[in-house]
Specification:
With about 200 residues, the chain is mainly α. It contains eight helices and no strands.
Length: about 200
């Protein structure tokens, strides 16, 4: 599924989540929290494609990571005392980044499996151990990631749900081809439903 399709499916999943789960603490309550929730939904809806540098998010992530590594190397060479000041933050950054580097082998492998979702839960526990992070950030993030997997589950290629335990790809009974007219029609219908739902909630 294309990036725009994943984001549309992500928004739809986010709307369903905040509608069906209003009593869950992870779901936002205020307007600002709701906006931030959907920002993380959109980010999460693209995250599984981070395993390929040619994807929308992959291009930005790997370019940004290169800049960060260059900055860290420069500080190590020319300002080691300054680097020492942020040792703990760098530890967290390395802990969160290193597994992603291992996952980058080819498209639709580890990042499109339930193991990846499990790793995200582990990341959440690590981050909340070091920092006080509002729960709706992670909720939106997970909703976006799950929506991405569901979107690719509808494609002809499918996803390796149990990778690396099993390399078998699973897909829905009815599938669509990535970038096809069927996908564009589905995205259009979901977009119209999202707009209608938001308008109906406002008025």
């Amino acid at each position: 599924m294309m990036a725009s399709g994943h984001q549309t499916v992500g928004v739809t999943a986010g709307l369903i989540a905040i509608t069906l789960l209003p009593q869950v603490d992870f779901i936002p309550s205020s307007t600002l929290e709701t906006i931030l929730f959907f920002v993380f939904v959109l980010f999460g809806s693209l995250l599984p494609d981070i395993d390929t540098p040619s994807s929308t998010l992959g291009r930005k992530f790997w370019r940004g990571l290169m800049y960060i590594l260059l900055a860290a190397a420069s500080l190590y060479l020319f300002a080691p005392d300054y680097l020492e000041t942020y040792r703990e933050q760098l530890k967290v950054f390395v802990m969160l980044t290193f597994p992603l580097l291992i996952m980058v082998k080819s498209h639709r492998k580890m990042t499109h499996s339930v193991v990846f979702i499990g790793l995200l839960f582990f990341y959440h526990m690590v981050i909340t151990f070091f920092f006080e992070v509002p729960p709706y950030y992670f909720a939106g993030f997970i909703v976006g990631v799950v929506s991405h997997l569901l979107g690719d589950y509808l494609t002809k290629r499918g996803i390796p749900i149990f990778y690396p335990l099993s390399k078998k790809y699973f897909r829905f009974i009815l599938t669509i081809r990535t970038g096809s007219s069927a996908e564009k029609m589905m995205v259009t219908l979901l977009s119209l439903w999202n707009v209608w739902y938001l308008i109906s909630q406002v008025f």
